[in-house]
Design a protein that fits this description.
It is built from 45 helices and no strands. The chain is mostly helical. The chain has a domain of about 70 residues: Tetratricopeptide repeat domain (Serine Threonine Protein Phosphatase 5, Tetratricopeptide repeat, Alpha Horseshoe), CATH 1.25.40.
Length: about 775
């Protein structure tokens, strides 16, 4: 081999060694990934950028630049949780990375974590007081805290530092609108457009301003100009669709969506627009049909597929939805949205237990998912576990204060608890989020009505009618108002109008029946229920209402049998209708079939294991049978489900005094019952009896006197048992005169009182 060949071999070897060395140099590799990622980012290829920035972060996990760029890619993809993690890591590695802190603060504000956002804002204002972005972020935080004058000042400071940023003017205009300064806002929206006339956001902000001021032709002009300048951007088309809908131009709005599906056939927001339009107007069938086409044409559009699944669920096409959803979960078992869809499928398949497990898995995957909490609340409500349900809904609004469904659920909880202040609070949130919906106004009307604020109630009820004349909500509340005013003719009219708009409304039917019952027109109340059942034969609540009226106003054994039959039908139509099951059991007990009543409760508990009322009623029925051991077991099961249950606590406390149980435990239970039912004479009497058994006679007397005061407010103002117990307590406390007064009162009220012999014996023993 010649010397020259050796020389070239040496050079090749040296070159190879050099290039291999370069490829193994972490800094060189990291830089290549970063540069590649930046190129993808500039081209709008965010997923490709994400991969490259992830590679850079893997090469050097302590590179603040890699983590910051990775965060930017996540932000572009609207993946907020990983974006937050990467920004936090950036700031941890490089505390003086001010752009990262600005982004982090804005993410925290968007996520309503205002306290943590304040930490970063304070840092920015301290370290970068002359940085316009510091003041811009501070303005956003103040606006989130609804401190609009201060937000305006901060944004004006940002503009004074950088007067050529159109975003600042647009945000300033938005804050001024929130502060009810529309005249001051208009020039700022126009300035934003002037600085960037081809951009979508400033023109749409100006259009929205015009729309809010009722200047609709100007609003449409701006939106049309935006479409002309950005024909491939779906946002202005969506704005035009919304504008037409606000004007009641549904056909024009539909044409916008149809045209978008043609012009933007390769943009998901474009080709989904028609399906979203149908969904928005409540036409689920058309939405499903359109999304079926979307799914067929764009099988790789994962979000489009997910939207299709949601629509199939809403259309009760459960099997098809489950099949598609299972395909997603097969490849992505922790996909939060898919898990939520599975839970909805479980709920519609009467499997709330399975839904709970699925949603808890979704929350382990994404602990901040508001929709998961909302549906978890729904699952718990189906199980009758109301404390867990309400806790879940509360977590949903904490995670996303703009989730209207959760506020609606909390409003209904306020109705269930008769907590009108809580109802008003939730209704205000619904009105804020859904100003065009009657629901919030109707619920607030109810909260005012229950507190005697009739004028405010009428105003909101009429507002509910005006925003949605075809919806039943406002008419129902007007009926409730007229019933409270005892204007029966008007109440009847409004309830009938409610049923015309919603033939399934149990509230309207029940209230209409109340109108007739209040006037003693029992046959008419029964007749209207039977007529509505003929129109809607599969409504469980209607049979429950009919059975209740027959049971409460029964005169013959036949009436009782008919009521029982209707309760059975109601429970068969909806096995989760706890009221129907309970009344069926009560009807059976009323005709002396106590064993049948107990068996009914046991059947009901199979599908409603968290319903404390079934255990309590079973306990009472076992007491009727003198099977106190089984009664105690029932009350204990009730307390296992809900340790705070006042009725179960009361009954168990009383049972312990009858069976030689632990009186300290009985006292604790009786006190818990008293806290839960402060207006119950029976519960006050139980507490007094436990105190009497413990020898605390003065405390017992106080409790019995409270029970007596409560009976005076009830339908049975002179309860012989309370007088008997009070007489015994006075006798044991050495107050014979007071003892005689109450014991003699027992025999005067009820000469045939069950314990009359004991009363006479005690009277015979008294001295004084």
């Amino acid at each position: 081999m010649s010397r020259r060949i050796y020389y070239w071999l040496f050079l090749l070897t040296l070159s190879a060694t050099f290039f291999v060395g370069c490829s193994r140099d972490p800094n060189v590799r990291k830089q290549k990934y970063l540069e590649s990622g930046e190129r993808y980012l500039q081209k709008g290829k965010y997923r490709e950028a994400l991969i490259q920035f992830s590679n850079a972060a893997q090469v050097d996990s302590r590179s603040p630049e890699a983590h910051y760029q990775l965060a930017q890619a996540y932000i572009k993809l609207q993946q907020w949780t990983p974006a937050y993690s990467e920004l936090s890591r950036t700031v941890e590695l490089q505390p003086d990375n001010y752009p990262a802190r600005v982004d982090l603060a804005n993410l925290l504000i968007a996520g309503h974590d205002l306290n943590q956002a304040q930490v970063h804002i304070d840092y920015l204002l301290d370290k970068q007081p002359n940085n316009a972005l510091s003041h811009s972020a501070a303005a956003e935080l103040l606006a989130a805290q609804e401190e609009y004058p201060s937000a305006i000042q901060q944004m004006q400071k940002a503009i004074s530092l950088e007067s050529d940023q159109w975003e600042f003017y647009m945000d300033l205009g938005g804050f001024q609108m929130k502060a009810n300064m529309p005249d001051a806002a208009e020039p700022n929206f126009k300035k934003a457009v002037e600085l960037n006339p081809s951009a979508t956001q400033p023109r749409l902000a100006l259009a929205h301003y015009y729309q809010s001021r009722g200047r609709l032709p100007e609003a449409e002009r701006e939106v049309q100009a935006t479409i002309a300048a950005n024909p491939k951007d779906p946002a202005p088309r969506t704005a035009l669709l919304s504008l037409y809908m606000s004007e009641g131009k549904r056909e024009e709005a539909q044409k916008v969506a149809e045209q978008a599906s043609l012009d933007l056939a390769n943009d998901p927001a474009g080709y989904r627009m028609l399906g979203d339009f149908y969904f928005g107007v409540g036409d689920i069938k058309s939405a499903v049909a359109e999304y079926s086409t979307v799914y067929r044409k764009h099988p790789h559009d994962v979000q489009g597929e997910k939207n299709y699944i949601q629509l199939l669920i809403l259309d009760n096409r459960i099997d098809e939805a489950a099949q598609l959803n299972n395909q997603i979960l097969k490849s992505s078992p922790s996909d939060t949205e898919a898990l939520i869809y599975r839970a909805q499928i479980d709920l519609r398949s009467a499997k709330p237990d399975e839904a709970v497990k699925t949603l808890q898995a979704a929350l382990r995957s994404d602990p901040g998912d508001a929709l998961a909490y909302y549906h978890l609340g729904t699952a718990f409500s189906q199980l009758g576990d109301w404390p867990q349900a309400e806790s879940s809904w509360q977590k949903a609004v904490e995670a996303n204060p703009d989730l209207s469904e959760a506020h609606l659920a909390l409003a209904r909880a306020g109705i269930r608890h008769n907590d009108m202040a809580a109802l008003e609070q939730s209704a205000n949130q619904v009105i804020r989020l859904l100003p065009g919906s009657p629901a919030g106004f109707a619920m607030r009307a109810l909260s005012f009505l229950k507190r005697g604020r009739f004028d405010s109630s009428e105003s909101d009820a009429l507002k509910a009618i005006s925003v949605a004349p075809e919806a039943p909500d406002g008419y129902l509340q007007m009926g409730n108002l007229k019933l409270a005013e005892k204007n029966y003719a008007q109440a009847e009219k409004f309830y009938q109008e409610t049923l015309e708009r919603d033939p399934n409304s149990a509230d309207a039917l029940g209230s209409l029946m109340s109108v007739y019952l209040a006037q003693g027109q029992i046959p008419k109340a029964l007749s209207i229920a039977q007529a509505q059942i003929a129109k809607v034969p599969n409504n469980s609540a209607f049979y429950d209402l009919l059975g209740t009226a027959q049971f409460d106003h029964r005169k013959t054994e036949k009436d009782l049998e008919t009521a029982e039959s209707n309760f059975k039908t109601s429970a068969a139509l909806d096995k989760n209708n706890a009221d129907a099951w309970l009344k069926l059991s009560q009807a059976q007990a009323a005709r002396g079939a106590v064993d049948d009543a107990i068996a009914t409760n046991q059947r009901a508990l199979q599908d409603n294991p968290k319903q404390v009322a079934f255990y309590v009623l079973s306990g009472r029925l076992y007491e009727v049978k003198h099977d106190l051991d089984k009664a105690r077991q029932c009350y204990q099961k009730a307390l296992d489900v809900d340790p705070e249950s006042p009725q179960a606590s009361n009954n168990m406390a009383l049972l312990l005094t009858q069976t030689g149980g632990n009186l300290d435990v009985a006292l604790s239970l009786a006190q818990n019952a008293r806290r839960g039912l402060p207006d119950s004479a029976n519960v006050a009497d139980t507490l007094g009896w436990v105190l009497y058994k413990k020898g605390a006679y003065k405390s017992a007397i106080d409790s019995f006197r409270q029970a007596l005061a409560l009976t005076e407010k009830s339908k049975f103002p002179d309860n012989p048992t309370v007088h008997f117990h009070l007489g015994m307590a006075y006798e044991s406390d050495g107050q014979p005169v007071m003892a005689r007064h109450h014991l003699e009162r027992v025999l005067k009220i009820a000469p045939n009182y069950a314990n009359a012999e004991d009363v006479r014996r005690l009277l015979g023993q008294l001295h004084g």
